[in-house]
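Reminder to self: tokens first, then the designed residues, so the page reads top to bottom the way the pipeline ran.
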């Protein structure tokens, strides 16, 4: 019990209306897309809220979760799509192919769904070696088999040399949501215990190390993995998990902010409780990065009712992908929409939603 006892759309319009738009790079003043708009932080959120949501104008998008749950023929299905533009294509611990499968499988799992089928779209740049395409395709097939899903449909397009970066991928997926499961950001509630499934920051630092040719004394591998089995283990304890989120772009800091904002609650974490491996901490210190905002591809953060937290934590630690799971904080009624970290010195700091991405093109 020690882990938990110590815790205390608008309607569519003919054209986007940016009159009320406010951020350091508002669209009305900067009419061109910048890299930060794809980084999973505040710029991405502003783009979605002020451009895409009004254009699409449908209530299925309102939750802005990792996947959308829809009802079809009496079944509840989770549906998600994602695109992958990582550079380089291959990195310690994985490849763009592994990311494409695991990223979409994990988005489905964050709704409590059991992933079943994926689509896969290839956008190839003229001149890319067919041997490279074959390596990526093999990685996709192997990752799909490991995750227990099938590639059911796909597409291939080729763009002129100089108009791509070798290979871009898009995957969409569907999965079945079990009866009694309702996992979404809006369900976070005061008293919930916040649990992270393991050490953060590995994927982003692994990408940066090979991209920039940096050495940190030890090879850092991406944590890229499919989380469906871990989620099944958690749901076996209780179907009443309030929120699951895989902290990819924008890292753990962005994920916590998105949940706090969606539910209108505050989140308090203990900075020292957040598991950051020494190699990631050292690399971030050298690069001037904050591990809270570095991407992960095989971790999840869970908001669990307090009465189930100890049992869920124990179950997570029994699974290989949750062996280093840790309680890092709790959900509170104070400072709604804000994430606050208690520092090792006894003070507090606000964990803001990042504007963009510390490390672009990491997924």
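Designed residues (363 positions):
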């Amino acid at each position: 019990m020690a882990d938990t006892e110590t815790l205390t759309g608008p309607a569519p319009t003919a054209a986007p209306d940016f009159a009320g738009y406010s951020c350091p790079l508002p669209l009305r003043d900067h009419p061109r897309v910048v890299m930060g708009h794809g980084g999973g932080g505040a710029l991405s959120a502003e783009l979605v809220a002020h451009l895409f949501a009004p254009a699409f104008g449908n209530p299925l998008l309102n939750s802005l979760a990792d996947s959308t749950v829809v009802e079809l023929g009496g079944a509840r299905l989770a549906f998600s799509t994602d695109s992958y533009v990582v550079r380089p294509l291959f990195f310690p611990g994985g490849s763009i192919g592994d990311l494409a499968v695991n990223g979409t499988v994990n988005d489905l799992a964050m709704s409590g769904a059991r992933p079943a089928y994926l689509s896969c779209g290839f956008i190839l740049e003229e001149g890319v070696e067919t041997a490279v395409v074959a390596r990526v395709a093999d990685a996709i097939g192997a990752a799909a088999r490991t995750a227990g899903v099938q590639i059911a449909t796909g597409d291939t397009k080729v763009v002129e040399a100089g108009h791509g970066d070798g290979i871009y991928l898009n995957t969409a997926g569907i999965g079945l949501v079990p009866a009694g499961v309702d996992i979404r950001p809006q369900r976070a509630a005061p008293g919930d215990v916040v649990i992270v499934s393991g050490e953060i920051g590995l994927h982003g630092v692994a990408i940066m190390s090979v991209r920039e040719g940096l050495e940190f004394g030890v090879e850092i591998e991406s944590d890229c993995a499919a989380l469906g089995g871990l989620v099944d283990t958690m749901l076996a304890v209780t179907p009443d998990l309030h929120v699951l989120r895989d902290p990819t772009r924008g890292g753990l800091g962005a994920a916590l902010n998105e949940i706090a904002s969606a539910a209108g609650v505050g989140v308090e974490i203990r900075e020292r409780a957040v598991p950051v491996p020494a190699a990631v901490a050292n690399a971030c210190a050298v690069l001037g990065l904050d591990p809270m905002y570095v991407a992960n591809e095989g971790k999840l953060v869970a908001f669990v009712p307090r009465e189930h937290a100890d049992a869920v934590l124990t179950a997570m630690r029994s699974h290989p992908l949750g062996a280093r799971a840790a309680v890092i904080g709790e959900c509170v009624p104070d400072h709604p929409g804000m994430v606050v970290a208690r520092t090792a010195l006894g003070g507090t700091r606000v964990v803001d939603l990042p504007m963009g991405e510390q490390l672009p093109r990491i997924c």
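The chain has a mean pLDDT of 89.
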